């Protein structure tokens, strides 16, 4: 698909595609260029996520409004990594930065019996942003299924480097960032905000909201936050069944237009 | 444990362990008969007998015994000849050498009968049929050593042995008393040859094992140099030669040692460990070059040496060829190279894999190992339900508000923040692993005694999942009896 970053098929009707992107897609189709692979997740998110792209996930802040503590949205990232791994056959998943390392028992429960997410995972301990960036860049170029990285203090140049590495290796990069970095410029294809939701049914619930999507202007339906919950029986994420269409209230802030990339 | 083979439709015991031998199981016995002899509590592990595996293991053991002598020969199915002529002095004495060999074999898990004698035949006879597991026959006393042993000790075939028994010749002493001419006329010629070999009258040659020479390449400079470009070039050339050697033997390297010989006799070395066997020059040189640059050399360098310290066979994999759009590298190989490069810069302990462990304690349900090490064969037990997404490295102390000690939690103060609790699940009691501690009243001492064992076990824990007003779910625990609260994980 060249350098276009549209995350959605042409005729899905979930958003209005920019004319320039549409032209590139048509050119690609006419030239017979391969369509990039996608991780099928339209049951959870408004559209499937494209491989070879950088996707940013703003995590959840602590309980107090002034808190500088945050939690990366790991439950969702684990689910996306699992789907990406299964789609690539038996791809590998690299977790860069200690704050995005999930509890091993949970990873052992995901995937097939002989090939769990835990068995295909590589964990990298890197404290400094430069080390995390280098490790994520190298992993993305090594054709792994997905790289989940702690993206604290990554600037525009760092995200651009990761985007290029993801394109080169065809891997999916999922970058977890603290919520107060929502205003930092980034070269990511999509940016999502995840927050906790209280549930009347004692389940773990999150709301996932699309903040930005390069190359596409999402319509109202795509901009509305999705309500996801952890199914107790299957231990998998799903759209909350008691919420109409799984959609929460409309996103409060307007989506930022892409300024870079 | 029994090893069996199928003989005309029957399973026949070929080898048996010491416990089975004690119960009366003999080679050649039917498997059903052997099972009936064994007591009910000894359920034997029965596996097919594979002689080729035995031969390979014996060969490896012979290569291992090369530390005692340069001439070691395998004597199938279960023997080794070690020619210790002249080397016993290095170990003190022959007697001490025999003890050393026995101790080493025991550490390797083998029970061994060892005899030292001046001829192979005499040593073989005494080792197989002597009264003691370890013994030595002094030079010149071979006749006395052999005299009381049965005729089978002469390494003769079964038919000759039978013929000797028929005429009442039971021991080697009986055979020795007869004139040699009559033996040659009446029995197989191999009897006379074996007898002469045992007595040292004729020579006996064994085919020694010859392990493949280690892959090592070295360059000695014409005088000491401190020019790094020369040293780099020499190392690069040596690595190319090592890779060529590996290709010739169809092997890959797991650990490579580069050493620089310093002026004045010293040497500095850098070791490079790899996650999987490889012989990719580009990959190894990228890693080795950074190691070489980090080496601290005082004075000039007289020579460079590269040794493949650990080699292994390369598992061949199918990969996309360059004509089909691939770059000729399989995904597994790329993953191995990624691991090596990450570990080379960040350190081997910073790139890890995690194996599941069968334990119900949350912090013991997994084991971390460096990605450069081979995976452990661990079996995870049943995976518990309802575990959080993140487990903190150490439980973090918290203060909890509740109406009753066992009642639902109403509020939580943790990490300097207060949170109102709106929902609470639990408790789930997780007991300690009682078998890891000694019983309080002393009792039977356990096999491994450590200071940790003697301490009282930590108290059990009650775990609750609580939801704060913001919707966040935390995994909170309380020490039973102590009343201290901790936050141990969260769902995020």
Provide an overview of this structure.
The complex is a heterodimer of chains A (261) and B (492). Chain A has one domain: 3-Layer(aba) Sandwich (Rossmann fold). Chain A is globular, with a radius of gyration of 17 Å. With 261 residues, chain A is of the alpha/beta class. In chain A, strands 8-7-9-10-4-11-12-14-15 form a nine-stranded mixed β-sheet, sandwiched between helices. Chain A has a two-stranded antiparallel ribbon with strand order 1-13. Chain A has helices spanning 19-31, 74-87, 104-108, 129-141, 156-169, 220-223, and strands at 15-17, 38-39, 49-50, 54-58, 60-61, 70-71, 93-96, 121-124, 146-150, 172-177, 190-197, 205-213, 216-218, 226-230, 237-239. The longest helix of chain A has 14 residues, at 74-87. Chain B has five domains: 2-35, no CATH class; 52-199, no CATH class; 216-343, Dna Ligase, domain 1 (2-Layer Sandwich), CATH 3.30.1490; 356-384, no CATH class; 390-491, no CATH class. In chain B, 29% of the residues lie in helices and 29% in strands. With 492 residues, chain B is α+β, with helices and mostly antiparallel strands. The longest helix of chain B has 21 residues, at 228-248.
Give the topology, please:
The complex is a heterodimer of chains A (261) and B (492).
Chain A: E1 15-17, H1 19-31, E2 38-39, E3 49-50, E4 54-58, E5 60-61, E6 70-71, H2 74-87, E7 93-96, H3 104-108, E8 121-124, H4 129-141, E9 146-150, H5 156-169, E10 172-177, E11 190-197, E12 205-213, E13 216-218, H6 220-223, E14 226-230, E15 237-239
Parallel strand pairs in A: 4-10, 4-11, 7-8, 7-9, 9-10
Antiparallel strand pairs in A: 1-13, 2-3, 5-6, 11-12, 12-14, 14-15
Chain B: E1 2-7, E2 10-16, H1 18-22, H2 31-37, E3 46-48, H3 51-64, E4 72-75, E5 79-82, H4 94-107, E6 114-116, H5 120-129, E7 134-136, H6 142-147, H7 158-166, H8 172-177, H9 180-186, H10 189-199, E8 216-225, H11 228-248, E9 251-262, E10 267-278, H12 281-294, E11 301-313, H13 331-346, E12 351-356, E13 366-370, E14 390-402, E15 409-414, E16 417-430, H14 451-454, E17 461-468, E18 473-479, E19 485-491
Helix pairs in contact in B: 5-10, 11-12
């Amino acid at each position: 698909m060249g350098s276009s970053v549209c995350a959605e098929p042409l005729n899905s009707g979930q958003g209005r595609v920019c004319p320039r992107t549409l032209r590139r897609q048509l050119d690609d189709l006419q030239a017979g260029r391969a369509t990039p692979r996608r991780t099928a997740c339209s049951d959870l998110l408004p559209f499937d996520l494209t491989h070879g792209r950088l996707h940013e996930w703003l995590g959840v802040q602590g309980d107090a409004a002034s808190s500088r503590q945050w939690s990366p949205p790991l439950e969702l990232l684990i689910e996306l990594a699992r789907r990406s791994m299964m789609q690539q056959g038996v791809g590998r998943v690299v977790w860069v930065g200690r704050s995005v390392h999930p509890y091993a028992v949970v990873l052992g429960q995901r995937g097939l019996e002989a090939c769990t997410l835990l068995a295909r995972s590589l964990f990298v301990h890197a404290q400094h942003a430069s080390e995390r960036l280098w490790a994520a860049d190298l992993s993305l170029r090594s054709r792994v299924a997905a790289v989940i990285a702690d993206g604290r203090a990554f600037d525009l140049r760092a995200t651009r480097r990761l985007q290029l590495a993801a394109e080169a290796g065809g891997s999916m990069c999922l970058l977890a960032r603290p919520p107060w970095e929502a205003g930092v410029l980034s070269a990511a294809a999509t940016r999502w905000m995840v927050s906790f939701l209280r549930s009347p049914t004692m389940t773990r619930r999150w709301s996932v909201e699309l903040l930005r999507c390069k190359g596409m202007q999402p319509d109202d339906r795509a901009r509305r936050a999705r309500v996801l919950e952890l199914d107790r029986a299957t231990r998998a994420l799903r759209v909350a069944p008691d919420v109409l269409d799984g959609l929460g209230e409309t996103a409060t802030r307007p989506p930022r237009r892409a300024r870079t990339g | 444990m029994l090893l069996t083979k199928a003989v005309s439709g029957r399973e026949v015991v070929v080898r048996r362990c010491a416990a089975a031998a004690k119960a009366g199981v003999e080679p050649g016995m039917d498997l059903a008969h052997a099972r009936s002899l064994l007591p009910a509590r000894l359920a034997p592990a029965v596996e097919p007998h594979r002689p080729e595996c035995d031969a390979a293991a014996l060969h490896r053991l012979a290569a291992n015994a090369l530390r005692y002598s340069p001439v070691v020969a395998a004597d199938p199915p279960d023997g080794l000849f070690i020619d210790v002529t002249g080397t016993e002095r290095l170990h003190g004495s022959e007697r001490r050498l025999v003890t050393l060999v026995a101790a080493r074999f025991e550490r390797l898990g083998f029970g061994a009968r060892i005899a030292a004698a001046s001829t192979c035949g005499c040593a073989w006879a005494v080792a197989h049929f002597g009264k003691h597991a370890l013994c030595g026959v002094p030079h010149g006393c071979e006749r006395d050593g052999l005299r009381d042993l049965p005729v089978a000790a002469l390494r003769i075939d079964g038919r000759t042995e039978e013929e000797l028994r028929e005429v009442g010749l039971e021991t080697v002493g009986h055979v020795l008393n007869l004139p040699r001419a009559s033996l040659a006329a009446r029995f197989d010629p191999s009897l006379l040859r074996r007898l002469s070999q045992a007595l040292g009258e004729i020579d006996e040659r064994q085919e020694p094992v010859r392990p493949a020479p280690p892959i090592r390449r070295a360059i000695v400079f014409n005088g000491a140099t401190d020019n790094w470009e020369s040293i780099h070039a020499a190392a690069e050339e040596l690595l190319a030669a090592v890779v060529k050697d590996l290709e010739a033997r169809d092997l890959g390297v797991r650990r490579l040692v580069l050493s620089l010989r310093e002026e004045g006799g010293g040497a500095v070395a850098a070791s490079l460990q790899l996650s999987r066997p490889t012989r990719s020059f580009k990959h190894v040189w990228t890693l080795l070059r950074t190691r070489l640059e980090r080496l601290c050399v005082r004075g000039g360098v007289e020579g460079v040496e590269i040794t493949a310290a650990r080699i292994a066979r390369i598992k061949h994999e199918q990969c996309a060829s360059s004509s089909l759009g691939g770059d000729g590298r399989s995904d597994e190989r790329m993953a191995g190279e990624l691991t090596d490069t990450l570990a080379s810069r960040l350190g081997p302990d910073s790139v890890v894999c995690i194996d599941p462990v069968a334990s119900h304690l949350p912090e013991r349900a997994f084991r971390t190992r460096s990605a450069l090490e081979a995976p452990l064969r661990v079996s995870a037990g049943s995976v518990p339900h309802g575990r959080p997404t993140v487990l903190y490295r150490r439980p973090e102390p918290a203060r909890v508000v509740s109406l009753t000690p066992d009642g639902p939690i109403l509020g939580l103060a943790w990490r300097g923040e207060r949170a109102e609790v709106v929902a609470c699940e639990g408790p789930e009691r997780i007991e300690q692993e009682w078998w890891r501690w000694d019983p309080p009243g002393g009792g039977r001492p356990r096999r491994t005694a450590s200071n940790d064992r003697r301490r009282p076990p930590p108290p059990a824990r009650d775990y609750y999942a609580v939801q704060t007003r913001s919707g966040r779910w935390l995994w909170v625990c309380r020490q039973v009896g102590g009343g201290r609260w901790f936050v141990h994980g969260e769902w995020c």
